[in-house]
Amino acid sequence: MKAAIDAITAASRATTGRVLVAIAGAPGAGKSTLAEALAEQIAGAAVVPMDGFHLDNRVLEQRGLLARKGAPESFDAAGFVNMIARLRRGEEVVIPVFDRPRDIAIAGARVIGPDQRVLLIEGNYLLLNAQPWAALAGFWDLTIGIEVPLEVLESRLVQRWRDHGLDGAAAVARAMGNDIPNARRVVEGSALADVVIRQG
């Protein structure tokens, strides 16, 4: 984590405006954990998760994507890019937040104010080399990537679904049928980060 803090500090010194830090990695890599830990160490920092831009389950069902929830096409990617552009301009921005236990995104759940100068934006597809995600590249002051071996991700993702109440077989099916394919898309299709943190 020290390398990340040092890099964020350097990025902060290089600009007088907001500092946008992308924290990217596969599902289960530990993005949220890292972002929250960094926010505790950095004055004026706020965490901005990508997950608030999940499309609602009813929309996903209409589009035949419910079983692929969490894949790049299951997000309002254009809306997310627009939010990042507004944050880049230093505006106060009201953002949606994903309620994981209820499996829904809640609109207008948080406010990012102009006094929150360092924004730690975390999500799976922040460095994806596919449109519209690739349009994000010009907004970042710093990118941090978390790399975790696939077998470690598999174990974490199965346990995540078990923690949400699925039995062993259902947890494995959910992780291997959706999360791991999404993880491979992140690993194989993302740009190299400025700072790489290897775990596992």
Q: What does this 3D model show about the protein?
A:
The chain is an alpha/beta fold. It has a single domain, classed as Rossmann fold. Helices cover 38% and strands 22% of the residues. It has six helices and seven strands, in the order H-E-H-E-H-H-E-E-E-E-H-H-E. Strands 2-5-1-6-7 form a five-stranded parallel β-sheet. Strands 3-4 form a two-stranded antiparallel sheet. Strand 3 and strand 4 form a beta hairpin.
Q: How much helical structure, as a percent, in the residues? A: 25-40%
CATH C-level class is: Alpha Beta
CATH homologous superfamily heading: P-loop containing nucleotide triphosphate hydrolases
What general outline do the C-alpha atoms trace? globular
CATH arch. level architecture? 3-Layer(aba) Sandwich
Intertermini distance: 14 Å
Q: Order of helices and strands, N to C?
A: HEHEHHEEEEHHE
Give the strand tally.
Answer: 7
> By helix and strand content, what is the structural category?
alpha/beta
Low-confidence stretches: none
